[in-house]
Amino acid sequence: MNLSKSQYTKYRSCPKRLWLYRNKKEVLTQPSPALQKIFDRGHFIGELAWKRFPGGVLVKDGYQNPQEAIKRTQELMAQGVPAIYEAAFCYNGILVFVDILEKTPTGWNLIEVKSSGKKIAPIYFDDISIQRYVLTHCGVTPEHCYLMHVNSDYFMGTDEPDLKQLFSLTIMDDDLFSHEDIEENLAAIEELLAKPEPSAELNKTACGDCEAHDYCWKDIPEDSVFELMRSKKAREYISKGIVHIADLPPNTFDNETSNHWIEVYRTQKPYIDRAKVAEWLNKLVYPLYYLDFETTNPVVPLWKYSRPYQQIPFQFSLHVQRKPNGEFEHYEYLSTGKEDPRYGCVAALLKYIGKAGTLIAHNAGFEKGCIDKMAHDLPIPEKEAKRLLEMTERFADTEDPFEHDYLHPKMACRSTIKKVLPALVPGMTYEGMAVANGGEAMDAFDVLYAQSLPPAELEQLRKDLLKYCEQDTWAMVKLVDALRDSVQ
């Protein structure tokens, strides 16, 4: 059997995923820009991890020439080098590359590197288990198997990251699958690949980033029962011929909001609890500050007093309305260089946001969290930190009414601003914008930070970022207007 480690883990995540990869590859999609960024981040972290094991040697171009890589690995092991990066092994047609093979006084340790934080995904156990299986059958029984991952609790109090603190090593020996388990899976794979295309067990969460998603879900409409229930239950309804939300019987759920969604889809009319919407509106206190951050979350901290994957605000837009029916003022901040953008952000927030009035954001917990972290992490005067923390107590969330009290058939059972805005304000769109979502804003910041374009193009990119962020806060203004109209 010719099988790579990645193909084995594809099978373990979903048998049909492997079958399509081996037999119908043309239906698979290329990684999205967001997913490709995760892959690139993984490669970067993998190479950074090598520095924790100095003196090691890289086995180059293993994927292009596996046999040469296997031979080179054996040579390096015989030389007793301190570590081998991308060590290659093959047993019975199963090819694996070990991120780091560490020499010990009496043998070797297997180390799998992941760019993830504290959470250990179930598939990691399969990943390391198949490597141990192959190495053992090649006569190299690892003394220990480790998962090396990013320590998301690491707080960088220095100007440069400490790799010993940035990475965590978790021993995996006792939690790995046995050789018998793996051999059962290998037999099942052989049987799977010899048969016609299998059916897929659709799972909205698990299928999300799969390259076979579009193919497997092509017959599932956007208004399917998957939007309102767990995948197992949704599959049961679909097996009975109930595919669309509108086809569900009234009062299917114990949850009142889900039952309202059935009626919304059946009638194609919004559900509005005007009393609850009015209650939310009545809590707004002028002046109103509509605030939206754009952030970057580098896996390796770029600035002192930050953590891996921490959301670091590099930009905000602020629309201010000081009295009912009053004119709007617009303020903005965008980092200008490689300096820590949080200090400029704090100064601008303190300048433009007064000590009274409601701050408004969509999914406000995000903005509150950013402000809270800046107040606690940065060495700023206590008076400034106190003012920032007081801001976090004054937020209203424009997402709240759209979770239960205002449901629209064009919202696709979602309350995110990208779903709510086209439903309530159809004339306002992000289509055609040079920067049109948070992921693209993050990518744009990376370009600005690296200064990797000519000055004129960098200046245009700054304008595109400012325009996008301004649209986000103006969108919230329009949503509040729509909420007010709904209770007239």
What is the chains' assembly state?
single chain
Helix fraction, binned, reads 40-55%
Number of helices: 18
Q: Quick one: biggest sheet?
A: 7 strands, mixed
Question: Could you list the spans in which at least 5 consecutive residues all have pLDDT below 50?
Answer: none
SS-based structural class? Answer: alpha/beta
Mean pLDDT: 96
Distance N terminus to C terminus? 69 Å
Strand content is 15-25%
Radius of gyration, taken over Cα atoms and rounded to an integer in Å: 27 Å
Shape type:
globular
Number of strands: 14
Word description of this protein:
This protein has 488 residues and is an alpha/beta fold. 43% of the residues lie in helices and 16% in strands. It contains 18 helices and 14 strands. Strands 1, 2, 3, 4, 5, 6 and 7 form a seven-stranded mixed β-sheet that branches. It has a five-stranded mixed β-sheet with strand order 11-10-9-12-13, with helices on both faces. Strands 8-14 form a two-stranded antiparallel ribbon. α1 crosses α2. The radius of gyration is 27 Å and the shape is globular. The termini are far apart. The model has no long low-confidence stretch (mean pLDDT 96).
Keywords:
488 residues; alpha/beta; 7-stranded mixed sheet; 5-stranded mixed sheet; 14 strands; 43% helix
Tell me briefly what this model is.
The protein has 18 helices and 14 strands. The protein is an alpha/beta fold and 488 residues long. The longest helix is centred in the last third of the chain and has 32 residues.
Describe the secondary-structure layout.
Elements: E1 3-4, H1 5-13, H2 15-23, H3 33-49, E2 57-58, H4 66-79, E3 83-91, E4 94-103, E5 108-113, H5 122-137, E6 145-150, H6 163-166, E7 167-171, H7 179-193, H8 213-216, H9 231-239, H10 256-267, E8 271-272, H11 274-282, E9 288-296, E10 312-321, E11 328-334, H12 341-352, E12 358-361, H13 364-377, H14 382-391, E13 395-397, H15 401-404, E14 406-407, H16 417-424, H17 438-450, H18 455-486
Helix pairs in contact: 1-2, 1-5, 11-18, 13-14, 16-18, 17-18
